[in-house]
């Protein structure tokens, strides 16, 4: 008995290996190998007689083209099971919370601003709650409490109880204040209350009421962010801007494609639901077959299906302009600019994985090919480690020499 046990660690590893080998030897998984639609149609979106859609079917070496009627013998054993082990249950809210915490870590590390639509909806409430927890935890620390700047660019016509924000003509206070009633009802069909944890609001009014999509707020926000990111020589502020996608709906897909075309990098937080999951899947497909320079038909069908499901979920919010076809074109636009796209997985166990690092690297790789400019951005964020790990992977001597000279100049100036 003692010989079989050996050391505890070694014995555990052996038992684990034996357990996995036993499972794979005795358990397998099966797939339907012939798509026979229930209604006789060849539409890839219809379900097969086995109950699954076409893109989930396994193409067997014994594929038969003359099969007209489905039967159970079309289900074949494909190989050893790939579904075993310990189950770690989590929900979409869990992933959203982790991404929100990571966002605040990035903000605290870089003194960045958060820009949102400023309304009391699911994701904004999650970020808002994370801000509250962060400020409560910081209260009483030795360091000075730093208020997180959170700017809401909000459509005036979509604010619930917006009449509370209107001052009377006779108001004469040099610093006007108003009391605003919050309503936590989250209706997809109507206006929403302002979120309380924003420090500033920019209220946009184009005359449209009770319609977020038609309010023009996304167009205004893009111009605002372009002004922030433009160099001072071009009349801008020279502040780097990154679009962070956590969840998101169909309109987020439009925004992402527009931002990429204007050179704004985007960071996708995986497994947070909505359009983030669709983009994650599309990027996985793209990286798995780069030789094809696109998606194969079955992969495209799966993306179409995911977009259609998203449109069904947002049925009360979509317009006639929204369609799976247009959404697929927007995804192709994003894939064609994949150098400006970064991906962050909140559950990744890699030691150097962090949202602030992912955001910084997305800025560094997009803003300039000049290593000196990249170094200055890293210094602003206080993350020189990103430069060491990402910029110098090729160990290019000329780049190292240039950066060393830049560091010497910085030290001399200090």
TrEMBL record:
GO BP annotations listed: metal ion transport
Molecular function terms, GO-annotated: monoatomic cation channel activity
InterPro entries membership: TRPM (IPR050927), TRPM_SLOG (IPR041491)
GO cellular-component term (any): plasma membrane
Pfam families assigned: LSDAT_euk
Domain TRPM SLOG, residue spans: 100-317
Protein name: LSDAT_euk domain-containing protein
Organism of this sequence: Rodentolepis nana (Dwarf tapeworm)
Lineage, broadest ranks: Eukaryota, Metazoa, Spiralia, Lophotrochozoa, Platyhelminthes
């Amino acid at each position: 008995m003692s010989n079989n046990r050996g050391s505890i660690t070694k014995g555990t590893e052996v038992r684990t290996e034996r357990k996995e080998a036993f499972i794979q030897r005795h358990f397998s998984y099966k797939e339907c190998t012939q798509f026979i639609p229930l209604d006789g149609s060849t539409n890839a979106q219809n379900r097969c007689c086995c109950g699954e859609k076409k893109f989930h079917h396994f193409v067997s070496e014994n594929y038969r083209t003359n099969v007209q009627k489905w039967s159970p013998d079309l289900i074949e054993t494909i190989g050893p099971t790939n579904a075993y082990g310990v189950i770690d249950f989590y929900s979409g809210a869990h992933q959203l919370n982790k991404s929100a915490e990571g966002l605040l870590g990035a903000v605290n590390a870089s003194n960045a601003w958060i820009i949102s639509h400023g309304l009391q909806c699911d994701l904004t409430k999650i970020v808002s709650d994370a801000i509250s927890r962060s400020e409560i935890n910081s209260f009483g620390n030795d360091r000075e409490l730093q208020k997180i700047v959170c700017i809401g660019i909000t459509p005036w016509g979509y604010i619930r109880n917006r009449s509370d924000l209107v001052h009377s003509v006779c108001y004469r206070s040099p610093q006007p204040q108003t009391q605003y009633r919050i309503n936590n009802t989250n209706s997809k069909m109507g206006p929403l209350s302002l979120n309380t944890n924003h420090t500033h609001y920019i209220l946009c009014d184009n005359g449209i009421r009770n319609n977020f999509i038609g309010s023009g707020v996304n167009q205004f926000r893009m111009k605002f962010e372009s002004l922030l990111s433009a160099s001072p020589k071009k009349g801008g502020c020279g502040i780097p801007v990154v679009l962070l996608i956590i969840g998101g709906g169909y309109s987020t897909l439009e925004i992402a494609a527009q931002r990429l075309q204007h050179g704004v990098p985007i960071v996708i937080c995986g497994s947070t639901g909505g359009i983030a999951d669709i983009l994650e899947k599309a990027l996985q497909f793209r990286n798995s077959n780069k030789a094809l320079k696109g998606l194969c038909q079955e992969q495209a069908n799966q993306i179409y299906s995911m977009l259609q499901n998203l449109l069904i979920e947002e049925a009360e919010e979509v317009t006639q302009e929204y369609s799976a076809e247009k959404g697929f074109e927007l995804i192709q636009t994003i894939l064609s600019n994949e150098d400006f796209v970064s991906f962050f997985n909140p559950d990744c166990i890699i030691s150097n994985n962090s949202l602030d690092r992912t955001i910084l690297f997305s800025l560094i790789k997009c803003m300039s090919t000049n290593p000196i400019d990249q170094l200055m951005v890293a210094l602003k964020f206080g993350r020189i480690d990103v430069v060491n790990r990402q910029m110098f992977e090729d160990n290019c001597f000329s780049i190292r020499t240039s950066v060393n000279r830049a560091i010497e100049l910085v030290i001399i100036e200090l």
